[in-house]
Design a protein that fits this description.
Shape: elongated
Membrane topology: Multi-pass membrane protein
GO cellular component, one term: plasma membrane
Organism: Ketogulonicigenium vulgare (strain WSH-001)
CATH class: Mainly Alpha
Number of helices: 13
Number of strands: 0
Main location: membrane
Family: Belongs to the binding-protein-dependent transport system permease family.
Structural class: mainly alpha
CATH topology: MetI-like fold
Helix content: 55-70%
Order of helices and strands: HHHHHHHHHHHHH
């Protein structure tokens, strides 16, 4: 009986028994990345979402090559007339706006603006949410109460009006939109990660780390944090869609920067120019469709990862 008793704890401590190379922060981080990358091979939703994201990322990276005109350049015809409301054709793939600007070029460069805001805001949201969730879930007590009350306050503030007011006071810029999104969207990811941490802190491998003399912060960021990375990545994909949708809404309402072309800027320009009344579907349908696709991609990725990594969360 004695060997069986001795072997039982070793099976519960795989992370601590794999030697120095596999017990550091970097190997654990890489295992989280590998877990994230393995999911699309197991789930069609995640694969479709990542393919959509990849297409938009490539478009944003090579936007300078794909554009046929400068997005804010006012164009003229050969007869020196303003190239206003030209129908789609070989020279202008999606036609031109009422102000004589090329719609296709605006759509392409708008991808870069959308992803810049979406990815930056999502990284900020998930970074804040992950740190708050880790500290709150692991330490508990007054730190947990303080951080969760802050999250309650953030959840109670109307999201879009807050971002609009912030952009109005600080100025119309994409950075201010990102700040507004980061300040209010972190509680959702923080609460979920907090729940996961509260479960992990009671596991045997955490207790074993304490026995070996590991400090609280080392346990938190070396032993617990890598185990919630997949959950953090999952919320990143969701936050990207939310951030892009928010930026488009703010720009559509006229609170976005006037010198930066985004999909929301295009929709606002089309609305102000009464493109719908003139039936210029080539003007407002493409940016609207791009917003829908990005948000759908975030949903597909979150759905796929939820089914593979967290099957108990599946409804």
């Amino acid at each position: 009986m004695q060997p069986a008793i001795e072997n039982a704890p070793r099976k519960a401590l795989p992370d601590l028994s794999q030697g120095k190379l596999n017990s550091g922060l970097w190997p654990r981080f890489m295992r989280g990345i590998n877990t994230f990358l393995s999911v699309p091979r197991q789930n069609a939703y995640a694969m479709i979402g990542l393919i959509i994201y990849a297409i938009f990322i490539l478009t944003a990276v090579f936007a300078d090559v794909l554009m046929t005109h400068r997005p804010l350049e006012i164009l003229f015809t050969d007869s020196y007339q303003l190239a206003r409301n030209i129908a789609p054709g070989p020279e202008h793939l999606l036609g031109t706006t009422y102000g004589g600007r090329d719609i296709y070029s605006q759509l392409v460069i708008g991808t870069r603006s959308a992803l810049l805001v979406g990815v930056t805001a999502a990284v900020c949201v998930v970074a804040i949410g992950t740190v708050v969730g880790l500290i709150s879930g692991y330490f508990g007590g007054w730190a947990d109460n303080l951080l969760m009350r802050l999250s309650d306050i953030a959840l109670g503030i109307p999201f879009l009006p807050f971002v609009i007011v912030l952009a109005s006071f600080l100025g119309a810029s994409q950075m201010n939109v990102i700040i507004g999104i980061a300040l209010l969207l972190w509680p959702n990811s923080a609460r979920v990660i907090r729940s996961q941490v509260m479960s992990l802190r009671e596991r045997a491998f955490i207790e074993a780390a304490r026995v070996t003399g590991a400090g609280q912060w080392k346990i938190l960021f070396v032993h617990i944090a890598p185990n919630v990375l997949s959950l953090a990545f999952l919320y990143t994909s969701v936050a990207v869609g939310w951030a892009i949708l928010t930026e488009a809404s703010v720009s559509f309402l006229g609170f976005g920067p006037s010198n930066t072309v985004s999909w929301g800027y295009m929709l606002q320009d089309a609305y102000a120019s009464q493109a719908l009344g003139r039936g210029q579907y080539n003007w407002f349908v493409p940016p609207g469709l791009c917003i829908v696709l990005v948000v759908m991609a975030g949903f597909f990725i979150s759905r796929g990862f939820e089914e593979v990594l967290f099957p108990k969360l599946k409804g």
